[in-house]
Automatic annotation (TrEMBL):
MF terms in GO: heme binding; iron ion binding; monooxygenase activity; oxidoreductase activity, acting on paired donors, with incorporation or reduction of molecular oxygen
InterPro entries noted in UniProt: Cyt_P450_sf
Lineage per the UniProt record: Bacteria, Bacillati, Actinomycetota, Actinomycetes, Pseudonocardiales
PANTHER family per record: CYTOCHROME P450 YJIB-RELATED, P450, PUTATIVE (EUROFUNG)-RELATED
SUPFAM superfamilies on file: Cytochrome P450
Name of the protein this chain belongs to: Cytochrome P450
Family classification: Belongs to the cytochrome P450 family.
């Protein structure tokens, strides 16, 4: 897996890498997976390699202009808000942890406050925080509710 822009560009331009699940060297996550792949299964744009990828990409490119995507922003925001509300209305992963740990009722609130400020990164920082990270850090300082933080971050257009 690569995440740096330069590495991603290298992988995307190197013919030794393939997105085609039918490619004989495509990695298998489960033993025997390659044998289970059907050569006639319909392929999506994301699972195509050049030169087949180019014409398929050009066929849909006009649907993804900045203007069209900006027009979709209110609907996307509505969907995201609805999903966050549904997520917060149901049981949360933290509820499972506190229930298994025997922390119930009103004690959960203080536990969240205590632990949310004590989570340390698992690995040393290798990059300097840029604008999206800074925006998220500002939000975290002013908005302790996870749903609030997420909404502020999404609304700020700092997503990349």
């Amino acid at each position: 897996m690569v995440s740096r822009h330069e590495d991603v560009r290298t992988v995307l331009n190197d013919r030794r890498f393939s997105a085609d699940r039918q490619h004989p060297d495509f990695p298998q996550l489960v033993k025997g997976e390659a044998a289970a792949r059907r050569p006639d299964e319909e392929r999506t744009l994301i699972a195509m390699d050049a030169p087949e990828h180019g014409p398929a990409r050009r066929a849909v490119l006009g649907e993804f202009t900045v203007r069209r995507l900006e027009a979709l922003r209110p609907r996307i925001q509505e969907i995201v808000d609805g999903q966050i509300d549904a997520l917060l209305a149901g049981p949360r992963p933290g509820d499972l942890v506190t229930t298994l740990g025997g922390v119930v009722g009103p004690a959960r609130g203080p536990l969240w406050t205590i632990t949310s400020g004590r989570v340390a990164p698992a690995q040393p920082r290798t990059t300097r925080p840029g604008p999206p990270q800074n925006a998220l850090a500002r939000t975290a300082r002013t908005c302790r509710d996870p749903a609030c933080s997420l909404r502020v971050h999404i609304s700020s257009r700092d997503l990349t």
